[in-house]
Amino acid sequence: MTSSAATVVPARDIADRSVLSGARRIVVKVGSSSLTSIKGGISEESLTALADALAAKRNSGTEIILVSSGAIAAGLAPLGLAKRPRDLATQQAAASVGQGLLMARYTQAFGAHGVTVSQVLLTADDLMRRSQHTNAYRALDRLLNLGVVPVVNENDTVATHEIRFGDNDRLAALVAHLVRADALVLLSDVDSLYDGPPSHGAKRIPLVEGPRDLDGVTIGKAGKAGVGTGGMATKVEAATIAAGSGIHALVTSTANAAAALAGEDVGTWFRVNGARKPVRLLWLAHLASVHGRLILDDGAVKAVRHRRTSLLPAGISGVDGDFEAGDAVEMVSSDGTVIARGLVNYSAAELPQMLGRSTKELGKALGRGYDREVVHVDDLVLV
Asked: Model confidence over 204-237: pLDDT tens digits?
């Protein structure tokens, strides 16, 4: 979808985009619809054009990480599948076939410019556990120091429904935080975010300064090609995650990749509107599977929301759901409003006997191990 409507871009916005022209490290994400099609598998022309733009940027001194969808889509034709499968096992099989094909094409296309690429496959589990995301950072950072362009994808072959990122847009946002990137560029077959259907004369939205700028904007889902999983909605979500956590973000089309990386006036720019956060808390806020709810009394709501304290048993009035220690849960007020998410230290079976009681009292009555917070402040994020 494109639009011919001209939009005047504020001078300050153009200045912001100069970050892209002089960035030290950029994460670029490209969607399946930009690289593949049901009928033809990998589009050689599209992939080569993207590699040309990214290799030129890399050879100019900017470190590039490419988060690339397309493995499942690339595996459809070789397996004789007419469309993206819905069941996880067949998706995993298609990814296993397609990932090798995709990497072979990237190796060839970047190699024409003297640039080496590597394959990095991640699951959500790799970013939620401190030891694993530390190792992932070290590996990516070393690859970048060696002049390599890492090609990152979700490890579809082994990921389960419970530990999936869900789409590579959100994966790209978390990778951008993991590697401390200066900017995130999200590429698809749509050149910008619009305030409505471009075919109906909608106007391009050149700048988003915060979530309120998107109030009333209808955002599209996955396109007609049927090879992707996200659409514009997940790109906006990923850009919002990045901008709200200290990283500049741009949403535009793959055809605009070179212009975007040069800081030109293309796409929709998401201006930074928050401070950087630990990648683990970003996972908890946006990707963790929630297994239950803790209902907080008014005092606990104030303590968690305004004083940013740990959640204690004395402030919990109810428990809902079936969860184990270490699972993610929501913390809600008495009227059901979600206040925060966190990793709980006790199971749903243990908590009822603890509600409304002080940690000191619980330690004496139930023994050591029951005198801890229900959710520690380090494992808690406001939403």
From this structure: 999 999 888 888 777 765 444 444 445 788 899 8
Q: How far apart, in whole angstroms, are the C-alpha atoms of residue 164 and residue 25? A: 26
Residues 151 and 68 sit within 8 Å (Cβ to Cβ): yes
Q: How far apart are CA 136 and CA 59, in angstroms?
A: 24
Find out whether 318 and 336 touch, Cβ atoms under 8 Å.
no
Q: Distance (Å, rounded) from C-alpha 381 to C-alpha 304?
A: 9
Structure confidence by residue, pLDDT tens digits, 171-195: 899 899 889 999 999 998 889 999 8
Element (H, E) at 360: helix 359-366
| Helix-strand-coil split of the chain, %, nearest 5 | 40, 20, 40
Q: Which residue has the tokens 């470190």?
A: 63
Residue pair 321/291 in contact (Cβ under 8 Å)? The answer is yes
pTM value is 0.80
